[in-house]
Design brief:
13 strands, flat, alpha/beta, disordered N terminus, two-stranded antiparallel ribbon, five-stranded parallel β-sheet
Length: 529
């Protein structure tokens, strides 16, 4: 018997022994091999289709970027020699565009190569505009330096050093604006089901359930959840509610992965099996690689915690321990100095805003104090008085006991989306996070920092698990990773995990990044209530 497809041929020889049992065994073997060949052929066709669709997009991407590079070049020339930004150009130093032809040609040749090599063409669906602009800035700097060094062999001199500074800035502006436009267009298309990324989840663990809910709740991310694979045949206990939406369908067990990928034309596999069920993880990854399907791993809270470890050697024996928090010694002093400078500047600039908000709160009925003072736990569990603009009725704390049954947050915190205690002015303050501006005085006093964990109420701390207490090793912040990653949409454990990541990986660049990302998170009111 001969079984073949476009890539391979299999020959099965009927055994010499005759009889019904031998014939049945032969037929079963033939059907199994034929099914496997068909699956392999289907997977190969799927890979070929993906490769065929990738090249036209890549060529179009390069063509668009060449046009953008040319626009950036002309924009830099205009800023230096026509608008004469920052510094005037003396007549004897004026250059025509034709004087830059060599630089322009080198720029248009080197630019796409550097952009590709530095990963600018790769735009993951979950990447933020901040990440993309940072990548563009790095690639732009590398491109300008490469053009300058290469031009030494073709040009007699550099017409203007300031021109190349403008060129770098023009690359950031033009490519940043283009990436922003693409991101918005993609969001619109994805929200309408166009060009979605077909995804399956391997493992309906609590972490896998959170990923599924995240995909279902955010269609604008461009992921289409086909379903999940799980070895448990009986219904799992779903710790994550899918309010108003059907739960994802179980497509089969983990061993059905190849068949599901081939049948459903899967683009990506997200593996969330958990630490105790990954004995065959290498084989699972190998199967994804063989099918040319993207895959990602979802670390659970335990693994994320131990991802940040340090290794020492004791006479050849490796010892693994947890990293100490990065905010110690000189780094802590640097962070404190930055907090003081930024707090003073912010208080001076925002003084009129603070006065207007204070007046609006004073005039609203029922009358009450302008500031809300609350005891919070700071670094090391030390209790301090946290200041906020009052956004609730004066008797809010007394009414809280009546609303505990309506708590919408997980863990030892109270959150309620439509809290009846919030005033009209207070609702605006909360939506825009302006109620937290008085915490600038807490920052000056050293009770808080601009970036750090959310300062908890002492009663919340008493309900912490042991690993939750480690978030108190860092000074609490006005904003943090929790603020730019979902705010009130995050579960308590997810919030603590982000706090621990921040404590172990602090850097001045990370603080700057969080501060820059906080502004759009507040303006767009993502997860605030």
């Amino acid at each position: 018997m001969l079984i073949e497809d476009s890539k391979q041929t299999a020959v099965i020889t009927r055994p010499n022994s005759a009889g019904p049992a031998a014939d049945a065994e032969f037929e079963a073997l033939s059907q199994t091999l034929a099914a496997r060949v068909r699956e392999a052929d289907l997977a190969e066709r799927h890979r070929a289709a993906r490769r065929a669709a990738r090249w036209p997009r890549m060529l179009l991407r390069i063509l668009i970027d060449v046009v953008l590079l040319n626009i950036a070049f002309m924009l830099a020339y205009w800023a230096r020699y026509e608008a004469q930004v920052l510094r005037d150009v003396a007549p004897e130093f004026y250059h025509e565009v034709s004087d830059f032809v060599v630089f322009q040609m080198l720029f248009l040749v080197i630019g796409p190569v550097v952009l590709y090599a530095r990963g600018v063409y790769a735009q993951p669906r979950g990447s933020s505009l901040f990440d993309q602009v940072g990548r563009i800035a790095g690639a732009g700097m590398f491109t300008v330096c490469a053009v300058l060094l290469t031009s030494l062999g073709f040009a007699s001199g550099v017409p203007s050093r300031l021109f190349f500074v403008y060129l770098w800035l023009a690359i950031i502006v033009t490519f940043g604006a283009e990436r922003y436009l693409i991101k918005q267009v993609r969001r619109v298309l994805w929200s309408r089901g166009i060009n979605e990324h077909r995804v399956i989840i391997v493992g309906a663990t609590p972490a896998g359930q959170r990923v599924m809910k995240h995909i279902v709740d955010r269609p604008a991310m461009g992921y289409h959840l086909i379903g999940y694979l799980d070895d448990r045949v009986q219904e799992r206990r779903w710790a994550v509610p899918f309010t108003g939406k059907p739960r994802p369908a179980r497509l089969g067990s983990v061993k059905d992965l190849e068949q599901i990928i081939a049948d459903q034309h899967v683009d990506e596999v997200i593996i969330a099996l958990g630490a105790t069920r990954r004995t065959n993880l290498s084989g699972l990854l190998a199967r994804c690689s063989a099918l040319r399907v993207n895959y990602r791993l979802v670390p659970d809270l335990f693994e994320m915690r131990f991802d940040h470890t340090e290794t020492e050697s004791l006479d050849g024996i490796p010892l693994v321990g947890l990293k100490e928090p990065a905010l110690r010694g000189g780094r802590l002093a640097l962070k404190r100095a930055m907090d003081i400078v930024l707090a003073v500047v912010a208080l001076v600039v925002l003084a009129p805003v603070l006065a207007v908000l204070a007046l609006a709160i004073r005039l609203e009925k029922p009358h009450g104090p302008i500031l809300f003072r609350q005891q919070r736990a700071g670094r090391g569990g030390k209790v301090f008085t946290c200041y906020k603009f009052r956004s609730m009725r004066p008797d809010a704390e007394a009414l809280k006991a009546q609303l505990l049954a309506l708590n919408e947050a997980s863990g030892p915190i109270f959150k309620m989306k439509n809290d009846p205690r919030v005033t009209r002015v207070g609702r605006l303050l909360r939506r825009t996070s302006l109620d937290e501006l008085p915490q600038l005085f807490n920052i000056l006093r050293g009770d808080m920092s601009f970036v750090g964990p959310r300062p908890p109420i002492p009663s919340e701390v008493t309900a912490y698990n042991d690993w939750h207490l480690q978030r108190l090793e860092v000074t609490p912040g006005l904003t943090g990773l929790w603020q730019v990653s979902g705010r009130s949409r995050l579960t308590f454990d997810e919030m603590v995990t982000l706090d621990l990541y921040y404590a172990e990986n602090w850097s001045l660049l990370l603080d700057c990044r969080v501060l820059l990302q906080t502004l759009p998170a507040v303006l767009l009111q993502r997860g605030a209530y």
